[in-house]
Amino acid sequence: MPGQVGDQGLKTLFSRYYKDFKSVEPDQISKREVGYIPFSGTMTRHLAFKTHRDLENFVTGIVPRHLYYSSTYYQWPLEKKMIEKGWMGAELIFDLDADHLKGASEMTYEQILRNVRDHTFRLVDEFLIGLAGFREDELRIYFSGGRGYHVHVVSEKVYSLNSDARREISNMIRGEGLNAKDLILNINNYGKLSGWAELVDREVTDTYKGIANGEYPKFLAENDRAAISSSLEQAVSLNGIVKKRKDILAQPGKNKYRLLNQLDREVVSRITDDVREKHACEIDEPVTTDVHRLIRFPFSLHGKTGLMVKPLTFSDLADYDPLTEAIPESSDVKARIEVKRKLKIRMRGENFEINEGEMELPGYVAGFCAGMGAAQILSIIN
Amino acid sequence: MMGNSSLPVLFRETFTTQSLENLFHSYSQKDTDEVISAINLALEFIEKGEPELLSYISDRFLAILLTFLRAVDENVLTNRILITYRKEIEKKCRDLPLEEIEEYSKKLGMDANMEFEDEMISVSLKDYLGIAGRISGSTYRLVYQDIRHGRIFVDREHVLKLIREYFYSNMKNFYDEMPADKARDITSPFAKATDTAKELFKSKAGLTSPELGEVESTKFPPCIKEYIKQVSEGVNIPHMARFTMVSFLHKIGLENQKIMDIFKTAPDFNEKVTTYQVNHITGETSGTQYSPPKCVNLQSNHLCYKGEDPLCNTEWLKHPMRYYEIKKSSRSESKK
Ligand code: SF4
Known about the structure:
The complex is a heterodimer. Chain A is an alpha+beta fold. In chain A, 39% of the residues lie in helices and 21% in strands. Chain A folds into 2 domains: 199 residues, DNA primase, PRIM domain (Alpha-Beta Complex), CATH 3.90.920; 100 residues, no CATH class. Chain A contains 14 helices and 17 strands. A 4-stranded antiparallel sheet of chain A has the order 2-1-3-11, with no helix packed on it. Chain A has a 4-stranded antiparallel sheet with strand order 6-8-7-12. Chain A has a 3-stranded antiparallel sheet with strand order 16-13-17. In chain B, helix 5 packs parallel to helix 7. Classes of the chains: A alpha+beta, B mainly alpha. The complex binds iron/sulfur cluster.
């Protein structure tokens, strides 16, 4: 296989990294299943290590192309059958990557990374810290090494949650199942409007404020505009007090949802869909709901990019540049490569326009091209 | 009004095998009376379905009752009684001031707090999700919760639902964690009563599994099998599951009467209502023949039971009907 030669070069590059691999995460390593994909051959799983030191030695010897651990804690991680592993609990994990991004196929790698980063920021800021109330120190954020980020909740608050419970969380984050009909039906149960209800109500209130001032949302048809405006002038009695409808609909709060007419309902429905579109985070649901998931090992290398699976803090996230931060030092060498497919990439703030043929490049660029299958590494020059 | 101190929590750990055995073998008149009234309750339940002793609920009484039921070992019977008690607990809590509801929730082990400003109770996300996943309907979905920094704010109605589910699972754990033969040992002085209860129960309800006739129930998808199993065990399944089951069975050609028979064992079986529902879903009265929902919808309502089923775990299986069609055709092909 011609690919083998190139893979060999990449493996040499990876072996420079794994020679001094320092493993500190995840916690309770002896309770984790470990799996890896080698440079040739298929996935091996159901491994376990007593200590991080044992794992380091193993990895130095094997030089994996991809390395994974289970977000689950097991009593007997070595058992081959899930049911015999003794499930003890699992981290709650979120996988954000380009696969779930609209229009990703038209974006460059850098654009994808920025876009996914924004989703990740929102996930952490609005949902995990804001709504679910996790503390920053209960979260681990990683650049995935590939096209996105992973967020792990490592806390007693989540370990025992079953798949259904995790699906609830995932649905909340994705706005799955959110629709105006059910929202209107349930909004009266809220004490204070929070979560999705608050987001929708904010938009609804603003929209009606606008309508009261003659500013109509674009989606509202011409003949509906007059109808809705005049309906806002009507008086209604709410809890025994008579008010104009606009004084209720253009104010924040749940009262308005008892007064909606057919047209209002359509407006609310439209707004709900827009709000969901705007605020939902595109996470990969099956990853979150799977309570036996293998996920990339912290500080391992991603076999398709040569970049590190690197932890970062929430405050780093806003302007994190993985194409600088996640480059392993061991790739600070020169490499000779043969490029089969041309490619553009910006790494460490430098633009590389790589055309077919043989050339010498920084090791991390070479690693990226080889990982993507666009080139073969011929030799590494120290 | 009763204080909540008398409401049961029924933690399994409170009762050792020894302490239960002591109750059933006791020489004290008081203990024996309690055992006998629990047994009477079970018999009365089998006989009439509505025992009067129900209002008497204590940890000890329920522990005795469940141990006896475990010895009788009829899941359908047990389930019906658990469901009745679940309702009873809800009813009892309904009369309590919110502060006492809070206190009782805490006793049950729920991380619950009174929120005076909102006159609501807040429950931790973890405990909320542990329970709410079992309740169907949009009202209990996390997307529609008043959630503030990891706590779900629920009103009185809502917390009552959580409490009754908590309590139900405590009872269920108590029952499930005791092996039937152990229960028979513990209750041995009342072996006669155990046998009587079992026989009476069997004779009362012609409780063989429902007769489905022509249709091939082995070819049903796991979800439908599970609904049928639950219904015939007396579990009150969520509306959507009922709907799915009825429309599915109708689509594959089962007569309405046969469908109705499945429901006969349900705890709250009401012939009129069931007839109405079945006729409505099958289009007899509504003119619309409803179809079962797609897998995704069942999944998002926690009503999918695919487990490791190979067919359900393929990417392209999207609908329970499709499951049945595939299974049927694959058999007839292999016959050729
Ligand atoms: S995958 Fe579909 S057919 Fe299978 S159990 Fe789930 S809902 Fe039923």
